């Protein structure tokens, strides 16, 4: 295992044993602190914060991917990157320092930690890793968990930072992919939603389907660890074709790759995988949720090989039960953070 050394370095994947070793060697005098960060996400009425209080890795902190999100007042998308002010406000409240080594994890294993790691990288945090298998792997390895409420941390002086917009694909970029006609090999969109949603609800025209579950060791929720790295290339090449995959890896080919899913969460796992395979990909933060909530976007339906045009988007979500404004979420005790301006 190696530690990340720059803001541009990709997050490492570490095992429960490696995280345990990291936590054992640090002490109060160490300048490098290792912070397990629970970025679990469950949809209302369930509560990820309640889940965190009931059981967590010792000394872990909790970052709410939904409640600390930046809500688009027009689209009402479920989950978006926080604003710089809200992100920094959360880091300060949690007592996290800019040079801390953050290890993202979730309860099931690999549902949201890549999203948490991508978010941290968007804001330029240097030392970021992901616990492969999450809290489930930690428990399976025989390590103890904490439970119960805990006191708030001493606020940190985390510096004000901006987002790296080069890591994010806005809707305007997606629109440019299809507004000029058929997609081509210099414009690649990969959708990680379940094949049923891709096929039956619809998808962005000419996008590839690579269900998130294909990247896992077993079907969720049985084994939510990421597959070994030596299997990643074969999976990607099988979806997009070997020739296009090679072009995607060629920095001089001009190929632009964008990942999407339902809410911009599971597709960050593909961002991680592609990055370690030499492919620089962006994440469509709105993903299908935002795409569908805009009126008049072109839609395709059907599985690969049997595609058919469908009616344009009507500005209505396929999952209305998830469209709950942040301010209307039930109070589950999640600490509230202030948006800072500097």
TrEMBL record:
GO molecular function, one term: thiosulfate-cyanide sulfurtransferase activity
Region (Disordered): 300-342
Keywords of this entry: Repeat, Transferase
One GO location term (cellular component): mitochondrion
Composition bias, Basic and acidic residues: 333-342
PROSITE patterns reported in the protein's UniProt record: RHODANESE_3
Keyword flag Amino-acid biosynthesis: no
Alphabetized SUPFAM superfamilies for the sequence: Rhodanese/Cell cycle control phosphatase
Highest taxon in the source lineage: Eukaryota
Annotated Rhodanese domain residues: 54-147, 183-300
Pfam family, one: Rhodanese
Keyword Repeat: yes
Name by which UniProt lists this protein: Rhodanese domain-containing protein
